[in-house]
Specification:
Radius of gyration: 18 Å
CATH class of the largest domain: Mainly Alpha
CATH superfamily of the largest domain: Uncharacterised protein YqeY/AIM41, N-terminal domain
Number of strands: 0
Shape: globular
Strand content: under 5%
Distance between the termini: 42 Å
Oligomer: single chain
Number of helices: 7
Length: about 150
């Protein structure tokens, strides 16, 4: 079952349960996915759907920061609730140990020996870590291990 199908089923379950927050949150996520599909001109693959869900979660984190600055705890709570609804649909993030192991394997695989070879390593790693690790964290670790 694809992630999009899981989201659709969760919306149906929320409708049956009368869970308004879950229903609207999941519908917003599905709407963002549909918009991306229209812009692309076809269905999205799983990593792209995961990326959209991550953007949705990231926007909620930004809303939390804005709510804190504005002194609006009710908005902060609502954004946290929405994150809790979206989080189960995202893949588990890589632990630092798993990430380091993947980076070391990619360095060996590409034969990288210096920081100049960082592009090769990132080219191999990016598809493998997409949705499970922050790109900046990955590039910092690659840079550190190649130095």
């Amino acid at each position: 079952m694809t992630l999009k199908e899981q989201l659709n089923n969760a919306v149906k379950d929320a409708l049956r349960a009368g869970d308004e927050l879950k229903k609207t949150t999941l519908r917003m996520a599905l709407s963002a996915i549909k918009l991306a599909e229209v812009q692309k001109g076809g269905p999205l693959d799983e990593p792209d759907v995961v990326g959209i869900l991550q953007k949705e979660v990231k926007s909620r984190h930004e809303a939390i920061e804005d709510a804190r600055k504005a002194g609006r705890p009710e908005l902060e709570t609502a954004a946290n609730d929405e994150i809790a609804i979206l989080q189960p649909f995202l893949p588990q993030p890589l632990t630092p140990e798993e990430l380091e192991q993947m980076v070391r394997a990619a360095i060996v695989e590409t034969g990288a020996a210096s920081p100049r070879d960082m592009g090769k390593v990132m080219g191999v790693l990016s598809p493998r870590t997409k949705g499970r690790a922050d790109g900046k964290t990955v590039s910092d670790l690659v840079r550190q291990l190649l130095a």
